[in-house]
Design brief:
- The protein has 231 residues and is α/β, with parallel strands linked by helices.
- The chain has a domain at 25-37 and 47-151 and 195-230.
- Helix content is 35%, strand content 15%.
- The chain has eight helices and seven strands, in the order E-H-E-H-E-H-E-H-E-E-H-E-H-H-H.
- A seven-stranded mixed sheet has the order 3-2-1-4-6-5-7, sandwiched between helices.
- A hairpin with a 6-residue loop joins strand 5 and strand 6 (164-169).
- Helix 1 runs antiparallel to helix 8 (221-230).
- It is globular, with a radius of gyration of 16 Å.
Length: 231
């Protein structure tokens, strides 16, 4: 039997060390990361026993949120979630937390963008990042945002090329069209498709095979700890 840690994300009260510039591409990004309540998330993902699916989902989200915070800075990050554990983590990092309205991913992203940070009139861009990128590193997101900064709107597809892991705009908050096949919908709406060679950014976690891919790429510390406990 695995004893559950009452503090599942120890040592996460400050942003990770070794961060990059928080202005990728010369843009002050308002980055929104939507994270579904872990009790409802990842219904297709089989967690390795005895690990609970909800605990694995929270670990994946924790790695994503920490990498995002390190890439853009806490003042530029909004996490949209109704999961108390993830909300506590994000608040501890200094990010803003907005309650998930519960109407799907598009509504969650829109709620996050309405909570716009005060960046003193500086050039701002809007970005939405999936919350299940367990292998993400700050430098991956920094490089992706720098590439997106050269376009009015851009979409970075997932590893399969069909979904969306990152959606950006440098003119106004874009309308999210997330879900299966979203990359094509975002492209049809005017976003430039960027097939970036960033496998850790583009590997989201939906099923067990995705988790195996993430572990091969190099999962973040929370995901590694969770899967080790489940082994």
């Amino acid at each position: 039997m695995v004893t559950r840690d009452p503090h599942p994300f120890p040592g996460t009260g400050s942003a990770p060390a070794g961060t990059t510039s928080t202005r990728p591409g010369g843009v002050y990004w308002h980055l929104v990361v939507p994270v579904k309540d872990a009790s409802l998330a990842k219904s297709r993902l089989e967690a390795p026993a005895p690990l609970r699916r909800a605990d694995l989902a929270r670990a994946v989200a924790a790695d994503t949120v920490e990498a995002a915070c390190a890439a853009v800075g806490a003042e530029s990050l909004t996490v949209v979630t109704s999961d108390e554990v993830v909300a506590s983590l994000a608040s501890g990092l200094g990010a803003r937390v907005v309650a998930d309205p519960g109407d799907g991913l598009d509504a969650a992203v829109a709620a996050g963008w309405r909570d716009e940070p005060d960046l003193g009139g500086r050039r701002i861009g809007w970005a939405a990042l999936l919350g299940d990128l367990a292998a993400l590193r700050p430098e991956d997101l920094h490089q992706a945002l720098a590439a997106c900064a050269g376009h009015r709107a851009a979409v970075v597809p997932d590893a399969e090329g069909t979904g969306t892991v990152l959606l950006t705009s440098t003119t106004a908050p874009p309308q999210g069209r997330f879900g299966p096949g979203s990359a094509a919908r975002h492209e049809a709406a005017g976003a430039v498709r960027l097939e970036l060679d960033l496998p850790r950014l583009r590997r989201d976690v939906d099923v067990a095979a995705d988790l195996r891919s993430v572990l091969a790429l190099g999962a973040g510390p929370h995901t590694l700890l969770a899967t080790a406990r489940g082994a």
